[in-house]
Amino acid sequence: MSDGRPAEGRERLLAAAIRHLETHGEAELRVTEIAEEADVAIGLIRHHFGSRDGLVAAAQQRRIEGVTREDLAGMRATLTEVADNDALMARVTELTRAVTDRRRADVRLSRFAAIATAHGRPEARETIGATLGDLLDDLSVLIMEAQLRGLVRTDLDARAVATFLQAYSLGLIVHDLDPKDPDAGKLTDVIVTAVRAILSPPA
Amino acid sequence: MSDGRPAEGRERLLAAAIRHLETHGEAELRVTEIAEEADVAIGLIRHHFGSRDGLVAAAQQRRIEGVTREDLAGMRATLTEVADNDALMARVTELTRAVTDRRRADVRLSRFAAIATAHGRPEARETIGATLGDLLDDLSVLIMEAQLRGLVRTDLDARAVATFLQAYSLGLIVHDLDPKDPDAGKLTDVIVTAVRAILSPPA
Amino acid sequence: MSDGRPAEGRERLLAAAIRHLETHGEAELRVTEIAEEADVAIGLIRHHFGSRDGLVAAAQQRRIEGVTREDLAGMRATLTEVADNDALMARVTELTRAVTDRRRADVRLSRFAAIATAHGRPEARETIGATLGDLLDDLSVLIMEAQLRGLVRTDLDARAVATFLQAYSLGLIVHDLDPKDPDAGKLTDVIVTAVRAILSPPA
Amino acid sequence: MSDGRPAEGRERLLAAAIRHLETHGEAELRVTEIAEEADVAIGLIRHHFGSRDGLVAAAQQRRIEGVTREDLAGMRATLTEVADNDALMARVTELTRAVTDRRRADVRLSRFAAIATAHGRPEARETIGATLGDLLDDLSVLIMEAQLRGLVRTDLDARAVATFLQAYSLGLIVHDLDPKDPDAGKLTDVIVTAVRAILSPPA
DNA sequence: CATGAATGAGAATTCATTCAT
DNA sequence: CATGAATGAATTCTCATTCAT
User: Fold this and answer.
1) Which of B118, B127, B159, D175 minimizes the number of CB atoms within 10 Å of its CB?
2) How much is the pLDDT for D126?
3) Distance CA D45, CA D49 (A)
4) What's the rounded Cα separation, in Å, for the pair D27 and D21?
């Protein structure tokens, strides 16, 4: 952030925009605020990103990408580490416990909001769809590999499984927002039951 | 405009705003348009909602409530109509087929966006959480009734099951946005497998 | 304020308006706020005062009148209590000390602002001028009585003296606003010197 | 609009606002009018002053400063021109005659209103207080110089004298507003009597 | 690669007033 | 004597974009 490299302003702007999107909606993003927080002149946004939309698109892209890569890396690690379905289910239980932890609610709500941006904006819809599609592709590949290794049942379509896994974990926002603060253990039981059904080969 | 019921203009404004939010993004909402469509003066928005944001917040909340009630009514109908778990699973398959139909993607994205409103707005978060919590409560009751009737396995917590059902159906937005346009039938298979696992009593 | 007398709302409105004018400018007065603080319906303002201006005029009138009456009462008391010019000057010194006390700055600034209302509003100018004129008249009478009693020099016009006394005491707002917080005693010396010159009969 | 000096539009806006405030009340000031008269876009008001209120506050402050400088220049001229106390008092009489001339009432009322801006606005109060304080400082220096030259009595505090002189001349607004239109000559007599008392060395 | 004053159409807000009850 | 929903013209505010330096 202070190593004198050229195009430093670009990074500062991007970082400021991402920081904003993580805590506020896209609609609340003001180019003047971002420029101020990045400590650069307003004109630099046009110089590097063409327009506000260019900046927002670049920031969203990097943001969704980032979360996606983390998710994927975790799953990849899981699959390479386990040797049979029992070990896999043990890891699934563990991961589910982590995912139902409401302390990460803010991160999920932020991602949720990023996806919601697609509503009423065809261009955003396309970009977001593409990013989500890529994630599903990568996840499908992982599942196929697991199917080939006999870790996962093979009579279900890998991409459909990937879609379902992404769907319920994204939708757990309803759990995050639930004012009842219900027992996370009971939810974990339900999820593990469902996931076991779609992953475990029939005995 | 003056024929009896007080605060009629308030309802007209809300209805107009909801109608708009169902098809467009919040950012595109113009108070002048809403007032015109509601056939009242713009000043009435301030009188009843304080500001544009107040109107939007009220509309979003009522919108979530509305969709919620519809969902619940459908589920109630389903449960009263079926007599055993087989019939239930047949209905579940049917409903899942409807839910994975991407022609309804816009409606789901719209609801998704309404919930995303909670991001970065503590008050909205509370209100939305309360509404979603109420839905989960009602759904839990339905599931408990089904458990009592022997339609659904009883070793899983009803509210946790309700949460999971809501979660994956909400999260299917990733399917809607998926540019690959994958085979919906294969996704239905996965979902039915998962739902059967958490609903069907062990044979 | 709660004795059930009719036209109670009128008094409540007036009181609320006066309370507002004492701490804020007239420009900041909103009829809705006043009605809310008075805990009556907005329509009542029109009913009793015709319009916002009617309410403000009534409030300003009562306010300036009130301060004026207090001032005058104090002066009258002073003059009736003293028997010769020496006693008068002693009282003047005492009063001057009170007037240069910056703890009453807020009250003076409020009165100052009320008079400033005359700027750019011919109608207000007339009302305020009339009220100030009445005060000068009353004060003149007091001074003339003092002149007749030999307490005050007679070669200066009573009304001109009254005007000067009012002028410097009003203008002491510059002392109130002075951030230096200077020695009030030294200012008292100057004022007493000046007042003695215009009041004391030549030796 | 782009010929060299930066932020020229800021000055044009300030000048236009000041011009307006000198003849009309603050309430009548319209940002569109000011922008038009300054020949700049309205947006520039926000850019430089944040809001309408910011512009008004900046204009009022500069206005008080301006009048202040003029006053001071006149006094300085007076003091350098006179050689003894007699000459000084002759000039004082002359100046007093000018100051009691009600044809300049509008200018004084305008200045009066500018100072009244301090009412109910702590920040404005501070700024205005600082400006007035600076004037008192400068005036004090003039008086001290006059004391050193033997033109003015030395047993009264210079700053207290400065405060009193400012006070009564500001307060003469009561004379301006007086509907009786009294004899200005008689008022001049009173003022000269008072001023002589605080300026003339004891014979 | 960078600055920031200037633009201005578009939108929201303001707020005293009206009037049916 | 009292209510408060409804009005809407007038005004201010918004904020991405432009461009000369």
Assistant:
1) B127
2) 86
3) 6
4) 9
**Residue D191 exposure: Cα atoms within 13 Å on the Cβ side:** 32
Closest CA–CA distance from residue A156 to any residue of chain B (Å): 7
- In this predicted structure, what is the pLDDT of residue A2? 39
Q: For C12-62, what is each residue's pLDDT tens digit?
A: 999 999 999 888 888 889 999 999 999 999 999 999 999 998 999 888 888
How many structural domains compose chain C? 2
**Contact in structure between C163 and D155 (CB atoms under 8 Å):** no
Percent of chain D whose predicted confidence (pLDDT) is above 90? 51
Closest nt to residue A27, judged CA to C1': F15
CATH number of residue B41's parent domain? 1.10.10.60
Q: Nearest 10 degrees: CA dihedral of B5, B8, B11, B17? A: 170
For the full predicted model, state whether its pTM sits above 0.90.
no
pLDDT in the model for residue D125? 85
Contacts of A137 (CB under 8 A, 6+ apart): A159, B180
- Please give the Cα distance from C57 to C52 (Å, whole number): 9
Within 7 Å of a protein beta carbon, the nucleotides of strand F are 1-9, 11-21
Cβ atoms of residues B192 and A144 within 8 Å: no
Per the structure, the residues numbered 14 to 33 in protein chain B that have their CB within 7 angstroms of any atom of strand E are 29-32
Alpha-carbon span C196 to C138, nearest angstrom: 21
Same domain, C34 and C121: no
Chains C and D lie in contact, requiring 3 or more CB pairs less than 8 Å apart: yes
- Residues of chain C short of pLDDT 70, as ranges, are 1-7, 203
Structure confidence by residue, pLDDT tens digits, A33-64: 999 999 999 999 999 999 998 999 889 888 87
What b-and-e string marks burial along A145-170, b requiring 16 or more CB atoms within 10 Å of the CB? ebbeeebbbeebbbbbbbbbbbbbbb
Q: What is the DSSP letter of D43?
A: H
Residue D27 pLDDT? 85
Q: Which two tokens stand for residue C70?
A: 């207090």
Q: Is the pLDDT of residue A1 over 70?
A: no
Please check whether residues A80 and A108 belong to one and the same domain: yes
DSSP 8-state secondary structure symbol assigned to residue B114: H
**Residue C53 sits at the chain D interface (C-beta within 8 Å):** no
Does B182 lie in the same domain as B143? yes
Any B CB within 8 A of A144 CB: no
Q: Where is A202: in which H helix or E strand?
A: none
Contact D43, D91 (CB under 8 A): no
- For residue D186, give the DSSP letter: H
Share of chain D above pLDDT 70, in %: 96
CA-to-CA distance for D79 and D10, rounded, in angstroms? Answer: 36
Give the dihedral sign, CA D163/D169/D174/D175. positive
- Tens digit of each residue's pLDDT (9 = 90 or more) over B86-108: 999 998 898 888 888 888 788 78
What digits encode the pLDDT tens for the residues A116-147? 887 877 777 888 888 889 889 999 999 999 99
Angle subtended at Cα B59 by Cα B58 and Cα B61, rounded to the nearest 5 degrees = 65
Residue D86 parent element (H or E): helix D85-99
Does at least one atom of strand E sit less than 7 Å from the CB of D47? yes
Burial C55-65 (b: 16+ CB within 10 A, else e): bbbbbbeebbe
Which residue ranges in chain B fall short of pLDDT 70? Answer: 1-7, 203
Same domain flag for A40 and A89? no
Cβ–Cβ below 8 Å for C120 and D196: no
Same domain, A94 and A18: no
* Statement to judge: residues A67 and A135 lie in one domain: yes
pLDDT tens across D50-62, in order?
Answer: 999 999 999 988 8
∠ CA D128-D131-D137, rounded to 5°: 140
Query: Among residues B104, B11, B107, B24, which one has the least CA distance to residue B59?
Result: B11
Q: Which of residues 162-181 of D touch strand E (CB under 7 A)?
A: none
